[in-house]
What we know:
The protein contains 13 helices and 25 strands. By secondary structure, it is an alpha/beta fold. It folds into two domains: 277 residues, FAD/NAD(P)-binding domain; 179 residues, no CATH class. Helix 11 packs parallel to helix 13. The longest helix has 25 residues. The two termini are 25 Å apart. Keywords: FAD, Flavoprotein, Monooxygenase, NADP, Oxidoreductase. This is Cation diffusion facilitator CzcD-associated flavoprotein CzcO.
Amino acid sequence: MRDDLDVLIVGAGLAGIGAAHQLQSAFPGLDYAILESRDSLGGTWDLFRYPGVRSDSDMFTMAYRFRPWPGAQSFAGGESILDYVRSTATDSGVDRRIRYRHRVVSASWSSDDARWTVLAEHDGEQVRLTAKFLHLCPGYYHYEQPHSPEFEGVERFTGTVVHPQHWPEDLDHAGKRVVVIGSGATAITLVPAMAETAAHVTMLQRSPSYVVATPGQDPLLAGLGGKLGKRATYALVRWKNIVLGSSMYRFSRLFPTWMRNSIRKSTAERLPAGYDVDTHFNPRYDPWDQRMCLAPDGDIFDALSSGKASVVTDHVEEFTETGLRLRSGAQLDADIVITATGLRLHAFGGITFTVDGRDVAPSETTVYKGAMLSGIPNLTFTFGYTNHSWTLKADLVGEFVIRLLRAMRRSCHDLCVPVAAGRGTLPMIENFTSGYVQRGIDAFPRSGSKAPWQVKMAYFHDLLVLRHLPINDHHLRFARAHSQARPSPSLSISDE
């Protein structure tokens, strides 16, 4: 493996593996590598091992555009998703380009050389690599440090306290009383999975989330029955889900009261008569102010209806020896308490950036076309959707990177950099009230109010911008390395 590369990818998760596959398919001679901080690929799907871990988006949009999802279920378990990512990497040889246990610490750009110098920590030593182009796919949250609030008296508790991000392999919950603190996608997944064998599972939430029951198997897929062939069926189901998801999101934003009432009605129909839906499943915020929680085949409602699980809406006052005392004065006894209290955002994996000797914080930059940062040359990044599958955006960014590299090659330019008139005035994720976003969004780049600087959670907008609109515009500047006396192609890729 060389240490002077054409393209360096950071992160070997779903986005990083997909980007590598796209790049080497477009440019067979490309000299690239992937740096992965952990000792295995898969990102999120290798990290999370809690019971029932599954996709929170349908697999026909969460899977890659170039590699159809092989299963029939709309929502897959974590192990199946990990197998899918691994097979994508091994079948294409991408896995041979990964350098594990390489945590990127810093990246310094030199316009004189048109190179990134990247420093990474590897087994206690510092490794130095250079690259002409840097593509960041490290995810958006901190892998080692989840969000863990301080609970009063937790040291008194004689049972087991676990965060889903650090699930112990030997934890046996069979026949145990379990309390899951939280109401997000992780809690909604954990409760029905653990209720199958636990004595009882209680979901303790400060406030409710929207939970929508959805078919476990796509009805269009079932109806087609393989008549069109695997690839055509996958494309049709994928596009149907994209259009339906985009339409429902847009409708929710335009008519939030109608959507709230519709979800409430559907929820009430899934629960026993007289269930207190307004206390436990009627949020204070509007639909899609936070990400929707999906329940395949309504599994959490089935667990609640059977009596194997219950929901308590209250606040934790303190831990006791045998469980939790709530603000209302009620006591919840537990053998195991799971703190599904959310993620901790981590902008670009904590990498520090320098451009021609000047430190540049991501929060000082503005996002260009949802894929680049103002003032930082030869750098792209993947940040997926809050209202769609992460991979939909990752696929589009991968295509944009290919188009950008081809444009640079054809024009014999060594560098390209978005130039903004000023710093963006809006958060990168606007109008999204989830706690984990509000706690950490200030460390991320800013969004402008107008294209191409406006970050939109809109697939069809990005489809036009990243796949179809011309690469060249007056916001993106191309140049040659300062040390180059004449044009000289710098990227070892073909024009095809």
